[in-house]
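Supplementary Note 3. Input sequence used for the single-chain structure prediction.
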Amino acid sequence: MITGRGNNSETGIAVVREAAIRVFHELQRKGVVEGFAEHTPGSFVVTVAPISAMVEGTKRRPEPDAAPAPAATPTLAALGAETRQALRVLAERSLDALGVRERGPFVESEMLRLFGVLAPSVGSAAERESQLRMAIERAMAELD
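The predicted structure, written as discrete structure tokens, is reproduced below.
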């Protein structure tokens, strides 16, 4: 049983009551709650669904398609030294712009994050690395 009318709330509106109703509807949709009703102003009576109904509900749901395999963890090893160095400078500037004082432990992860942001914007042609360096230069210009 949940009780409370909201008499002590700032606006006098029962915030918990509305939130509880939303939760009850969601639980009813999922088959966890069989029903609910307002018993008195500020209280609800909730009827929990039997376990068999929940089990039947999960059996009726179609099997989801197999989830795609997770993407491989990005690595910077395939990039040339010049591109990695430009990405490092961009990462350091980005961390400086964020106000990170001790940036050393965060540079590598910031490089990977920026690579993940910039890589989709370049094509898959043979010039990909030079296009990535140009994207890095544009990003550095935006930070300046």
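The longest strand covers residues 33-40. Strands lie at 2-3, 33-40, 43-48.
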